Automatic annotation (TrEMBL):
<protein>
    <submittedName>
        <fullName>DNA-binding transcriptional LysR family regulator</fullName>
    </submittedName>
</protein>
<comment type="similarity">
    <text>Belongs to the LysR transcriptional regulatory family.</text>
</comment>
<dbReference type="InterPro" id="IPR036388">
    <property type="entry name" value="WH-like_DNA-bd_sf"/>
</dbReference>
<dbReference type="Pfam" id="PF00126">
    <property type="entry name" value="HTH_1"/>
</dbReference>
<keyword id="KW-0805">Transcription regulation</keyword>
<keyword id="KW-0238">DNA-binding</keyword>
<dbReference type="Pfam" id="PF03466">
    <property type="entry name" value="LysR_substrate"/>
</dbReference>
<feature type="domain" description="HTH lysR-type">
    <location>
        <begin position="1"/>
        <end position="53"/>
    </location>
</feature>
<dbReference type="InterPro" id="IPR005119">
    <property type="entry name" value="LysR_subst-bd"/>
</dbReference>
<dbReference type="InterPro" id="IPR000847">
    <property type="entry name" value="LysR_HTH_N"/>
</dbReference>
<keyword id="KW-0804">Transcription</keyword>
<dbReference type="GO" id="GO:0003677">
    <property type="term" value="F:DNA binding"/>
</dbReference>
<dbReference type="InterPro" id="IPR036390">
    <property type="entry name" value="WH_DNA-bd_sf"/>
</dbReference>
<dbReference type="InterPro" id="IPR058163">
    <property type="entry name" value="LysR-type_TF_proteobact-type"/>
</dbReference>
Amino acid sequence: MRTFVRVAERGNLSSVARELGIGQSTVTRHLNELEDAVGVPLLSRTTRRVILTDEGSRYYSNCLQVLRLVEQAAEEARNARRAAAGAVRLSCTAALGVMHITRLIFEFQDQHPDISVDLNLTDERIDLVREGVDLALRLGPLTDSSMKLHALGKSHRLMVGAPAYFSVHGRPERPDDLSRYETVIMSNVAGSDQIALSSRHGENFAVPVNGKLRVDHGLAAREALAAGRGIGPTHLWLVHDLLDNGRLEVVLEDYRPSPVPLSLLIVPERSAIARVRLLTDFLVAEIPKLPGIRPS
């Protein structure tokens, strides 16, 4: 039944086999035995994809409820011995994960040594259910209303550059000056060819910018800024150490890019599981302590 559910969600036998650590022939056998037991076809197989039949769709919904009860029963048995154990899958935007979340996971596992964590670092908006993920840390506005949501706060940003760059090119004094400077551009962020800034007095600016270097990863942007390849907007948590040691400096301090919402998404069916709840509570308590993360 678990195999069937994962195949229904992923639509691919080989990916489910890799996920479960079994051979593809075993996945096929599980599906055939289940269909024989139920007495109707549950899946329709094409050369590229496996899709649910009408009977399979109804059976899938019931399977979710059955498997949830099975897991809750196991959790109750474990809780009776006061032991939280098992695996939690956490997805996180890559740069935040490398810079801060991995360290938090170490602390969490020191407190709960029987819980394993599968940390998936990606900047893609993955389907949590299809990928078998329990929790996801997301930067930016959200569109998936089917998940439970913890608003962790807002990630504040600022304009930075390297002292060596400013010594050659000077420092921008007003937002309009930015169009004359080389900008490190995030190619995977919509609208990154324009920098929007707001002043403390409520003025808003939208300045077109140019740059010879475009990157699709926050850590690459961090290295480019520190190397003096240009200036750019960045999250404080990404560069706080470089600001502290003088490798980067803040410019246009009276004008700031808009903060970005930071949220924790939870698959509703997984939220009551003890190990998922423990990691959720830990992240909700610890992430707002990171540099630049402030209450919404």
